[in-house]
Design brief:
single chain, mainly alpha
Length: 89
């Protein structure tokens, strides 16, 4: 049975509309800056840096949630950052 047959009417919450709009703006800005970086720098460096986006979540969880980073995770972070430095040389 399709949505049209069930007479589905989505709710329009102002907060949800605001979050959807902010998400679209942030996504568009991200794509814009990604293309700007690709046009100015080597693609291998840009891809290596954008692949490290989980480091942002790790840093935020460390700072805001007071989660610990063990030795293996710390070494992984250090080696990932060294890889970006070596790619950019």
């Amino acid at each position: 049975m399709g949505i049209a047959v069930m007479r589905y009417r989505p709710e329009a919450e102002p907060a949800g509309i605001l979050y959807a709009l902010l998400s679209a703006i942030a996504g568009t800005a991200g794509i814009f800056f990604y293309y700007m970086a690709v046009s100015r720098y080597k693609l291998s460096v840009v891809i290596a840096i954008t692949a490290l986006y989980p480091l942002v979540a790790i840093l935020l969880s460390f700072l805001l949630l007071k989660e610990g980073i063990n030795l293996k995770q710390g070494l992984g972070i250090i080696f990932a950052l060294l890889a970006v430095i070596l790619f950019s040389i």
